[in-house]
Amino acid sequence: MVVTRRLTRRNVVRGAAAVAAAAALARPALAQATARVAVIGGGFGGTACARALRRLDPKLQVTLIEPNRIFTACPLSNEVIAGLREFSAQQFSYDKVAADGIVVAAQAATKVDAAARTIGLADGSTLSYDRLVLAPGIEMRFDALSGYDEAASAKMPHAWTAGEQTLLLRRQLEAMDDGGVVVIAVPAAPLRCPPAPYERASLIAHYLKARKPRSKILVLDAKDNYSQQKLFEHAWAELYPGMIERIALSQGGRVTAVNPASNEIVTDFGNYTAAVANVIPPQRAGRIAAIAGAADRTGWCPIDPVTFASKLVPNIHVIGDAAIAGGIPKSASAAAAQGRACAAAIVGALAGKPPEPPRLDGACYNTVAPGYAFSLKGIYQPKDDLYAEAEVTTSPVEASREVRQREADEALAWFNAITGDAFG
Fold this sequence. Notes:
- With 424 residues, the chain is of the alpha/beta class.
- It has 2 domains: 9-137 and 286-356, FAD/NAD(P)-binding domain; 152-279, 3-Layer(bba) Sandwich (FAD/NAD(P)-binding domain).
- It has helices at 9-22, 27-30, 44-56, 77-81, 95-99, 164-175, 196-211, 229-239, 287-291, 332-350, 401-423, and strands at 36-40, 61-65, 70-72, 91-93, 103-105, 109-113, 118-121, 126-128, 131-134, 138-140, 181-186, 216-221, 244-247, 255-259, 264-267, 271-273, 276-279, 283-285, 301-302, 316-318, 323-324, 360-369, 372-383, 386-394.
- The strands form 8 sheets. The protein has a 5-stranded parallel beta sheet, covered by helices on one side.
- Helix 1 (9-22) packs across helix 11 (401-423) and helix 3 (44-56) packs across helix 11 (401-423).
- Its EC number is 1.8.2.3.
């Protein structure tokens, strides 16, 4: 088994320092420049990129464009749904980002003119840039599932972007009668945080076991296999025997339509009526990526894996969930790593330096009960025009409760490190 470097606050800071040292030679060339770099999207990737740009060269004019004044984090939000964590613990302001000398524009980007290198904002103003980084995350494809649209999500929440949807699903679980069936509809890949639906099923099962023990969870899945499947199945058998049933793609688990009025979910082989329906629709890159011309027919953004430069639009880079990045998962950890590497590539390019292929650390923790977690950790690097796994390790399927507790502690430490690096 290959052991990779644990992602902690110390390693995050150390990694940023290494990037800064690698780009130190670029600083004299930039001393005469006042290059303007705009970053659209204030999630983990966008903030990591913006702050790394300022660390690498304080003379850069960096603007972070993000309409929300408060960021609500997706990692650990399944614990909010299960009543194990307060919603406020997921929320962060951009005050420390602005204190770095980054201009935080609390506006939505509505237009990108790549030829003129300008960005149109919702208030009618225009920003110019020399380089643009798109970190828009995902949006729901409300046109991809018959009967499911934005209005339907008020009855059948997806809770796949943290915020009001998270609280809505939590309230529905609290209001559900004991004995009700919770149905989770899982789309085919690619999707944000691939193992998260199964973590959600686990933590909802924990809530139901304590509060509504006659209730069940049904996972309708458009995939046959998923990340860390053996670990989840082992945990379910140990902690929640008989409570969670999963119907895979080959068993007829793909959801084809929904009826919000009756809470009915339709699959290839049968219909199901849910007391609580958590419908996660297919996804694509955030809308501004398509507006900028950086998304292809798949809805995602092809990039150069070394520089994160768009393959479709000049002077634009794409990072995080929106990018087509091969083997590196769509996750907060990956987005932050991409943000720092993209910043180094931009600083180097502005100084006329050739890019160096990055090696990106990633970590994904899944909590299936309080004090019980497991993980997947890896190092990813460019190969054949995409990212590939260079080193990957997962938690052992058979492990003591002490090991599971240690990983639960590591999961919280990881969350504190990555949010601290982005917003602290």
